[in-house]
């Protein structure tokens, strides 16, 4: 059985997964289909490795994420729960981790494959395409992932902050109840509250993180004589890139948390203006220590486990 699974991953039946997903996500599957015939990881490999990486990092670092959310809450750290119930909202994280990360990496590898420079094209001008390609691929990947991530993030953060008794189930029921009282559009808007600021936070973060990670991996490959980097090396590079990116984008993360936790619908501009007037600059960097710690460790686990899985599926590990 194990050998059959490895054979399926390394040499999958033609378009098996793409055909299954085509009716649901036609544009997405068409855009990443080129990966199947490129030197980049196959669609199946990116799908499975991304799901594994996302689940691993979210479950292992959930307590730190809870502490960061409570530090950023307008109610304050201890009124939001302090150090108690740090696993509140984990059900929502479990549901969203695998599909969100899988969407990200399938889209990322697909766009990267589409825009990659041709083999042997090593002119100074063409080399500038690499970071731009990684920026574009990371941006597209984040937008795709947010389709899954935002609803689960809304539910998770409300449970983490002690809303609805700290229950993910109660939080999702409260959102779904808006369908009967205010209609489908109101329910949908509540489920995707903070979509704009989440994308606005995640895209700059990945635009910094992934080109750095890819550049360090390219340096690592040169140091290894052209051989692919190991999972451990990828983990080290991912940790450094993630921590640096996390520090720079903390103000965006604070704004996103405030918007999602607000009891009424508020715009990012309103939250920003209110914070600047009433609280000053310091709250924009609330939770920076756990965020940098969490994402540095998370970058190591996420990108290390992803590289390990890709290497294993490609027979390089």
Offer a few descriptive terms.
16 helices, 73% helix, mainly alpha, 317 residues, disordered N terminus, 0% strand, Mitochondrial carrier fold
Task: Describe what this molecule looks like in 3D.
The chain has about 325 residues and is mostly helical. The chain has a single domain, classed as Mitochondrial carrier domain (Mitochondrial carrier fold), CATH 1.50.40.10. About 75% of the residues lie in helices and about 0% in strands. It has helices at about 1-10, 15-20, 25-30, 45-60, 60-70, 90-115, 125, 130-160, 170-175, 180, 185-190, 195-225, 230-250, 250-260, 270-280, 290-315. The longest helix is centred in the middle third of the chain and has 32 residues, at about 130-160. Residues about 1-20 and about 25-40 have low confidence and may be disordered.
